[in-house]
Amino acid sequence: MVKKDEVKKAVQEQFGRNAEQYVQSQSHAKGDDLDLLVDWMQPQSNWTVLDIATGGGHVARKLSSHVELVVATDLTRPMLEAASRANRIAEAEHILYVQADAEGLPFLDESFDAVTCRIAAHHFPDPEAFIGEVSRVLRPGGNFLLIDNVAPDDSDLAEFMNQIEKLRDPSHVRCLSASEWRSLMDRHGLVGRMQRHRTKKFGFPQWVKRTSESEQQEQTVENALLLATDKQKDYLDMKIENGRVLTHQIEEWMVLCTKTRGDQ
Predict the structure, then answer these.
(1) Left, alpha or beta for 190 (phi > 0: left; psi -120 to 50: alpha)?
(2) Which of 15, 112, 166, 233 is deepest in the core (most CB within 10 A)?
């Protein structure tokens, strides 16, 4: 049983400690999904958009020149402060920063024309509460765009993948599979319109250091990968040389939904 308060405290500690690293992270700041989300959503100049778990503020910055207002929320105040600084330097305007929990948003029903959440939902202890809140604050006909790392449908591989993520980042809760996300969205009146499923290749040393607290932790993660079964290594497409992990891959799912009815 996941203890929500403990998880959220771990998230605040993790992202508060590494806020600037997430702002500067090239995988977060330069992903082609930032351009793609604009192409898919076709944001309008009169929209009010909610960006949940804004992190380094990259989505908020990307959308801010296309809409009337972006409300960027995050559970972690230092993360919001770092995002605000970076976006001011980039001269991004029309962004309001609000500290908020994705599973209990402080906004009225049907307040937003669109909602986004990018590479964050695997930190949420109650994904259904999150999706329920997205549906609640989204206007009928509004867009919801989710991007996150996802687990495979194979339960053994999914458990292994999440174990590695948890070793690397104690604030990680669980990557759901795309089919699990679809089920939650269907239950809350969010109908998929477009999707992209891809794999992302990471240099292991850089990936593990972004959330590391010690060399011992980094070694623990690497040892777990080196001891993986052939099936697990194949799934992660691991490249190993001289007993060291060089690269591996993670699945990512991007989906655009429309709210077609009220939450039930």
Answers:
(1) beta
(2) 15
> Is 79 within a domain?
yes
Work out how many domains the chain is built from and give that number: 1
Domain contains 54: yes
pLDDT over 60 (residue 6)? yes
Q: Write the CA distances from 98 to 55, 73, 101, 128, 139, integer angstroms.
A: 12, 5, 10, 22, 20
Share of the chain above pLDDT 70, in %: 88
Token pair for 166:
């948890």
Domain harbouring 50, CATH code: 3.40.50.150
- Pairing state between β 95-99 and 69-74: parallel
Please answer whether residues 66 and 48 qualify as being in contact, where contact means their C-beta atoms are separated by less than 8 angstroms. Answer: no
pLDDT (tens digit per residue) in 46-68:
999 999 999 999 999 999 999 99
Rounded to an integer, what distance in angstroms lies between the CA atom of residue 259 and that of residue 264? 12
pTM of structure: 0.89
